[in-house]
């Protein structure tokens, strides 16, 4: 059985400070949930205690990325914050010229693809959308453009047919 690695209050505060310095993300208000989830993450880091983990985190590039991936996992789905997305589309359409949009953080791409979907529905042809995120695993998922389940719940069946290719395993892949 794995030994549970539990950070002290001081160590947890140091961890939150390091994450903030690395990414600008402030996890202070998520301290309690973070403390609960950290042990499972730490099992894969090959460290004996939290102090050793903090030391490695400051110098190990791969561990930094894995840790950022761990702390940035969030909920996302197509057409989330629809009112805001529509405002962006209406503004872009009013400009009547090429529009460049940066979506940051873009997570696994649902926001970027939602903007592209809305742009197509509103006949906006000259739009470039760039999605960026510090979580490398979600960027890889976004590049695949392959989704299933709850993330698609706000899309109509006609939108799914128009913008996705459905596979036998019930995955929907962006129809590029």
TrEMBL record:
Domain (CheR-type methyltransferase) ranges: 1-176
Enzyme Commission numbers on file: 2.1.1.80
A GO molecular function held by the record: protein-glutamate O-methyltransferase activity
Entries under Gene3D superfamilies matching the protein: Chemotaxis receptor methyltransferase CheR, N-terminal domain, Vaccinia Virus protein VP39
Taxonomic superkingdom: Bacteria
UniProt cross-references to InterPro entries, sorted A to Z: Bact_Chemotaxis_MeTrfase, CheR_C, CheR_MeTrfase, CheR_N_sf, SAM-dependent_MTases_sf
Keywords: Methyltransferase, S-adenosyl-L-methionine, Transferase
Gene Ontology annotations of biological process type: methylation
Known catalytic reactions: L-glutamyl-[protein] + S-adenosyl-L-methionine = [protein]-L-glutamate 5-O-methyl ester + S-adenosyl-L-homocysteine
SMART domains linked: MeTrc
A Pfam family this chain is assigned to: CheR
SUPFAM superfamilies: Chemotaxis receptor methyltransferase CheR, N-terminal domain, S-adenosyl-L-methionine-dependent methyltransferases
Name of the protein in its database record: protein-glutamate O-methyltransferase
């Amino acid at each position: 059985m794995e030994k549970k690695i539990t950070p002290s209050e001081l160590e947890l505060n140091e961890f939150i400070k390091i994450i903030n310095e690395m990414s600008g993300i402030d996890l202070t208000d998520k301290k309690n949930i973070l403390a609960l989830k950290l042990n499972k993450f730490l099992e894969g880091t090959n460290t004996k205690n939290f102090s050793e983990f903090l030391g490695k985190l400051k110098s190990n590039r791969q561990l930094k990325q894995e840790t950022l991936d761990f702390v940035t996992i969030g909920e996302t789905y197509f057409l989330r914050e629809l009112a805001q997305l529509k405002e962006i589309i209406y503004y872009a359409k009013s400009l009547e010229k090429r529009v460049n949009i940066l979506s940051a953080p873009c997570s696994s791409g649902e926001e970027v693809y939602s903007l592209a979907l809305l742009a197509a529905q509103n006949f906006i042809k000259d739009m470039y959308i760039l999605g960026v995120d510090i979580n490398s695993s979600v960027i890889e998922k976004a590049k695949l453009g392959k989704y299933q389940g709850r993330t698609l719940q706000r899309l109509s069946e006609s939108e799914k047919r128009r913008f996705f290719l459905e596979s036998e395993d019930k995955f929907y892949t962006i129809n590029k």
